[in-house]
Amino acid sequence: MTPFCMQSVSKPFTYAIAVEELGADEVHHYVGQEPSGRLFNDICLDYNSRPHNPLINAGAIVIASLIRQKQCFSDRFDFTMQQYKRFAAQGFVGFNNAVFLSERETADRNYALSYYMREHKCFPPNAKLQETLDFYFQLCSIETNADTLAVMGATLANGGVCPLNGDRVVCNRACRDVLSLMYSCGMYDYSGQFAFRVGLPAKSGVSGDMIIVVPNVMAICIYSPRLDSLGNTVRGVKFAEALVECFNFHNYDSLVYSEVCKIDPRRKLHEVEHEQIVHLLFAAKSGDITAVKRHILLGADVDQPDYDGRTALHVAASEGHAKIVRFLLKRWKASPDPKDRYVHSFHLLSFLPNCVLVFRWGRTPLDDARHFKHTDCIKLLEDATHDLTNATLEETGKESE
């Protein structure tokens, strides 16, 4: 897959890291939240003598000055790279030194902008201008690919939690603020038109990359280097407009009373719950205790049965995975001897009355462990049943007294 430099698409992630580190109030003491209405590298400030927002050059340079101010230059960059990799679930995040040197050599505008901001006291105390600019150029020179950048965007769509590994990278407040700014300021001078036509948070870069975030659903990365006069990828913008023509992803599309037959691809809640159960049962069958833990952390109900009434405890006991049985029993909310669905017999077809299927169901996890002679699982389940019986007898005795 073709690698490319993130350029301005790095700015939302750097801003999110700064908000997570310092808090929104501290960050916005130095940077505003308004669309500038000017070119992205224009030498101007808002009425409070601050950069208009963190997604233009002035704001991004100030944000760079805020991250880990007391650390040395190399440690600050290393910290930010590690945070980017957390956004990407440890996917490909590299650095292009040639682009960094090129950025440095052609940075007259950014130097002028930085000196202008220093004159207006936009930087935090003791900020080193040259180090700050080099750090900013490094962030623009971070390299990735479309798959990885889509995962990074999906972490923003998922409220700051990476959807691939469940790692909380930044808080929900930081994500909310990032997406708000991407919606109003993310597409250079086309931001207003993009918000009107597409109605989704997005950010583009001059390398031809672009991310589109559908909050609570997904993120899309597009890489197409041909740019329009405003610095946005031509195909990326056209794709985004076609996307909301086909699907009801526009921020203000009615999900109920739409005159246009747009597709709603969002999964319903019960579909998500059923999928969680399936994933949990497959993890229990394969003996992958890490996956079992992950699915439970993501909200899977530990004692929820499938359509046959079989639970993860049934499956783990049948396969002889004692570690998973022990883990499930510690989190089991109900009786540890649930029965799967029992059907004594039924006629296969109404026109074949003599064809009868007999199901050997109605078994507990302990029955399955005994049937397959998994002694470790038998011991664990017998102990759990015994403990439950004793606890029930004690409660009955207390009530009778």
Automatic annotation (TrEMBL):
SUBUNIT field: Homotetramer.
GO molecular function (one): glutaminase activity
NCBIfam families linked to this entry: Gln_ase
Source organism: Plectus sambesii
Main enzyme class: hydrolase
Protein name: glutaminase
GO BP annotations listed: glutamate biosynthetic process; L-glutamine catabolic process
Pfam families: Ank_2, Glutaminase
SMART domains: ANK (SM00248)
